[in-house]
Automatic annotation (TrEMBL):
Gene source species: Belnapia rosea
Family: Belongs to the short-chain dehydrogenases/reductases (SDR) family.
PROSITE patterns: ADH_SHORT (PS00061)
Keyword annotations from UniProtKB, A to Z: Oxidoreductase
Organismal lineage: Bacteria, Pseudomonadati, Pseudomonadota, Alphaproteobacteria, Acetobacterales
Pfam family, one: adh_short
GO molecular function (one): oxidoreductase activity
InterPro entries xref list: NAD(P)-bd_dom_sf, Sc_DH/Rdtase_CS, SDR_fam
Full protein name: NAD(P)-dependent dehydrogenase, short-chain alcohol dehydrogenase family
């Protein structure tokens, strides 16, 4: 898929992976709608890239429909990228008692239900478009995590939500293949995002030594580059790609 001239929606686009992805798509010629729970963050990125902003909860149908409307007003909606996510830590049974059920439900709602909400609503719109050369109508790119495979202590909610994203990738790709819509997922390792920015410098330095090569934290721009590579290669479909420098997480 040539992204030049198409419309794209990026959720979680106000910071981190989402902002980097929105910037890379715009630089490649796409017209980008930036959705974020924080309106000011979405507007700042949209202004920087010449896109449009939308605010709302990714698990809310009306909010995502409105964001898709904003994207579709820019051109044919061919690409949707889910980058919105949260990662609060809590132990299953800790000193404060059992894991709060509400927290588990919140993480699943944002990370898994929010991802599926965009996938179902965006793909329904893409299915109605005229196919491009080669028969492709659109592409959905989800964001999981290597925690889907090696969740650490305190990550039960996060790991379960991201494993759900990995799990829906292939069946969704199989179902949407008849429309010429691809579904792919990226599972990043340790990426230098706002989620890690709050850590002490020594903690961030220790994390940066974990990937085998390159022996450093990943950069949001590298995740964005993979989104563009997926778009460019029509044979990539129904798969989750680890982007982690050969890192395998230990229990803690």
């Amino acid at each position: 898929m040539d992204v030049k001239g198409i419309a794209a929606l990026v959720t979680g686009g106000g910071s981190g992976l989402g902002a980097a992805t929105a910037e890379a798509l715009a630089a490649a010629g796409a017209r980008v709608a930036v959705m974020d729970l924080k309106r000011e963050a979405a507007e700042a990125v949209a202004a920087r890239i010449g896109g449009v902003a939308a605010a709302g909860d990714v698990a809310d149908e009306a909010a995502v429909e409105a964001a898709l409307d904003a994207a579709a007003a820019l051109g044919p909606l061919r690409l949707a990228v889910s980058c919105a996510g949260i990662a609060p830590a809590a132990r299953v049974a800790g000193r404060q008692g059992p894991h709060p059920l509400g927290l588990f439900e919140q993480v699943v709602r944002v990370n898994l239900t929010g991802t599926f909400n965009l996938l179902r609503l965006a793909s329904a719109r893409m299915a109605a478009l005229e196919p491009m050369p080669g028969g492709e109508r659109g592409l959905i790119v989800n964001t999981a995590s290597i925690a889907a495979y090696e969740g650490q202590i305190g990550q039960c909610a996060y790991a379960a939500s991201k494993a759900g994203v990995v799990g829906l990738t292939l069946p969704a790709a199989r179902e949407l293949a008849r429309f010429g819509i691809r579904v792919m997922t990226i599972a990043p390792g340790l990426i230098e995002t706002p989620m890690l920015a709050g850590l002490a410098p020594e903690a961030r330095e220790a994390l940066g030594r974990l990937p085998l090569f390159p022996n450093r934290l990943g950069q949001p721009a590298e995740v964005a580059a993979l989104v563009l590579a997926i778009a460019a290669n029509p044979l990539l479909n129904g798969e989750t790609i680890r982007l982690d420098g050969a890192l395998r997480l230990t229990p803690s």
